[in-house]
């Protein structure tokens, strides 16, 4: 697969009946669910699991989603979803990009971007990124 940015973190997705809506294609909410799924998988691959988030009393919460739906996906489609961390300010926020492609024809079905803000899990209040987040997420940033 060719991707818009180098060195993506990629997951494979097989479209099942549960993802299909009344129009007989993947419901738009599934794309968002898949973005959350790959975000966690990538964070865990980098060494920041939900358990580690809890230990540090921090969470990266969604501040803004931008999703551009370019083409539909259908039952039994094999897809690949890629993500990159494209910004980490070292203080309070980071941003991810996503690209979803259908394997059979290489067509991009979705381009998306999410901006996250750091908060304390115990209070929900904005907090600085822990040094560990700055180091790990900062090292993973890919230039756009």
TrEMBL record:
A GO molecular-function annotation: fatty acyl-CoA hydrolase activity
Question: Do the record's keywords include Hydrolase?
Answer: yes
Is Acyltransferase one of the keywords UniProt gives this record? no
Q: Which UniProt keywords apply?
A: Hydrolase
Q: Looking at the Swiss-Prot or TrEMBL record, what is one Pfam family this protein matches?
A: 4HBT_2
InterPro entries named in the record: 4-hydroxybenzoyl-CoA_TE, HotDog_dom_sf
Stated name of the protein: Acyl-CoA thioesterase
């Amino acid at each position: 697969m060719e991707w818009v940015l180098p060195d993506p973190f990629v997951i494979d997705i097989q479209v099942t009946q549960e993802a299909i809506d009344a129009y007989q294609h993947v419901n738009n909410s599934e794309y968002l669910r898949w973005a959350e799924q790959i975000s966690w998988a990538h964070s865990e691959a980098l060494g920041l699991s939900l358990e580690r988030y809890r230990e540090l009393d921090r969470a990266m919460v969604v501040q803004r989603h931008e999703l551009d739906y370019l083409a539909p996906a259908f039952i039994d489609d094999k897809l690949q979803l890629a993500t990159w961390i494209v910004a980490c300010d070292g203080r309070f926020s980071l941003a991810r990009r996503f690209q979803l492609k259908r394997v059979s024809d290489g067509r991009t079905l979705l381009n998306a971007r999410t901006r996250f803000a750091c908060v304390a899990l115990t209070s929900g209040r904005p907090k600085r990124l822990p040094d560990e987040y700055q180091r790990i997420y900062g090292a993973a940033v890919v230039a756009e």
